[in-house]
Amino acid sequence: MIHETDNSTIDTLVRILGKTRSILFITGAGISAESGIPTYRGIGGLYNVDTTEDGVAIEEALSASMLAENPELTWKYLAQIGIAVQCARHNRAHEVIAEMESRFHRVWTLTQNVDGFHRTAGSKNLIEAHGNMHSLSCTKCKYKESLDKFDAIAIPPRCSRCGALVRPDVVLFGELINGPGIEHLQSELEKGFDIVFSIGTTSVFPYIQAPIYMAKSGGNVTVEINPSETTVSHVVDYRLAMPAGAALDEIWRRYQAANNS
Asked: Which domains occur in the chain, in start order?
């Protein structure tokens, strides 16, 4: 159900998009909730408990230090996340972002999610800040492999070339978020964006908040789509307290109708 206030905000955003050339989408676990992936602590979401069945916190189980010390334990929970992801697929929110990428002059998506749904939906201009569960790297020879079926792997998996331990190309607890993706983000932010959407993220990390504040300071438009209030709710110009799929689909439908597409 779309309330009257949401209708007014959506119409306003459609008018703004009619004059827009560049868009940045910032997405978190909430955008994948409609795919059946729960919003969660841990890598890309899955755990709402403080302690795992093995008696350690999920942050400890999914840490770089635990992977080095006890890879069987870390991979036990990585595989659970992988299975949850392989049993789901992208939803309408991911599709709309991908469709908008081909319509506007410059569109980028910064995501904290590791599920790969933006890619399967068709997004190409994508910065996966926390990595992707489907990409694996050998811890010894650095050989890269792809993995889609997490319910059929040995725990822990080994490199098909040298037999050493492999790991998913995601940011584990205790590791820094850096690399070419973040460097690329900085480059794109320096160019500026006409409008920045924050979707399905609590925006607790500074690098997730920063694009919102940069857009505000530059006089550009900021939007949040999230049923719950977050750390940037009081900052953004427009807020839709709606699920991502419903909000983006309605914005996109009205935009296309208004622009005869």
From this structure: 4-36+90-130+176-258 (3.40.50.1220), 58-87+136-170 (3.30.1600.10)
